[in-house]
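re the bet — no i am not wrong, look at it urself. input seq straight from the record:
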Amino acid sequence: MKKQFIILTIILIFTFLLISSILENYLVYKYARQVNFDKASRISKTAIFLPKAINLITFKKISIINLWESSFAQLPIISELQKDSERYLQQTINSEYIDKELPKKIILNLQKINNNLNKIDDKELNEIKTAMQDATKIIEKFLTINQKYIVILQNSDEIRATGGFMGSFFILETKNGLLEPIKIQDIYAPDGQFNGFIEAPKGLNEYLSSGKGMRLVDANWWPNFPDSAKQIISFFKNIEQQNYQGVIAVNLNIIEELLELTGEIYLPDYDKTVNKNNFAQIAREDRAEFFPGSQEKINFLNHFLKIFKIELSKKIQSQPEKFIAMLPSIIQSKNVQFYSQDQELAEIFARRQADGQMINKNNQLYYYLVESNVGINKANRFIDRQVAININQNQEKIIINFQNNSTFPYINYQRIYTNKITELINIKIDNQEIEKEKIDQRNMKIDNGSEWLEIGFLIPILSKHSGKIEITLNSHLQLNEKKQIYIQKQSGLSPTNYTINFDQQSRDFNLISDQLVSIN
């Protein structure tokens, strides 16, 4: 009887410990999901008993259990990294004196995490390892080497090839690991100091240049972002005689998404409350009434930035999981694009598909539809479009239906990029074939050496009217070679409905990022 009592007691104690440990593990998981690594770290000190025990029983043969134990062991380091990063962010945003040891501590903890990850021999972790190494390398560069990047703010309400009209910009600069104060400037200020002449490419020359060649304000004409970024750097270097490491393009959409995170923001100097629905309208400057030297828009944007970064910092600290959840979609939708002249960083941005580069790895059918608003208005917020691609043995037809719900006409210089061996049969606008001399066509070679066929033409769509484009092509591929179609998304465009008709099959989807479509 006594023996049975002892056994029962041991079972009860073991059961209690097991249940407690499972509960603790759940709490660690819960707080880690909430990006509250401080609480997760404290609980993990006892919760780690469970994965350790299982690892001991299984002789460390199960990779997922090894990862479980290792993750718990790293939580104190991650917690310290989170605290230091929040302090660095807070001090930077508030323009306070930054502890010079913070950058070193951040990098050291990142390196520790990488080293611990590399000790785990598990192929399933390769992507996580690579992502952490990439993130560490980017942070190391910015915190240990002086950096100077041009950040262009693109208004996607007036669409251009890389995302939108470049109305404003600021310089992102770090010195000795410390971020310099940010001041938004009007793009027309440096543009007015450019005295040279650069021949404008087709489309831009006819519809935007006014015979003055290419100017800085239109330098993002090329849809391959590295090419546009190099042109932008060239302008700034010519004007300011300074070197820049790269260019970062940020679309209006990002500000609106972040405003959804922060909620409404009151601007006391303007006695206005901005949110994601009215920011573009309040910040918009009527370019028809623009005059050189006007500071109204820039003053507004700098006042907004001052308060916005404080509110955003508070939200990131209180709800970091919501901010982190936004990051993948921001990259995939191309609402932010990075170009760096640092080869290591350029390779990372390319690997993460964050460099806005045109790409067609497998030489399959390739289509990249690019719009440019040359009407100098903000019609694009009110433009709807649908795309159908019909594929058969002899040819391919791309049909684009536009609906202009704006009070402005939409003057669109439409371009399509496809495989260089493709032959253009004809283009129809509202069932009327365009004359060949009104179509710009050339073979285009981009920065990385890849070549494409570029086709460009003008399509005006009146206010409250619709428009239809039909582009008939011959790719010179066999039908079975057309079963994979790579479609690139233009930065700044809202999700677009696509229908692909192949033989007797049909596929429908919304294009929200670059997409490879495979037909069975």
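see?? Residues 365-518 form a domain with the Immunoglobulin-like fold (CATH 2.60.40). told u. also The mean pLDDT is 88. so pay up
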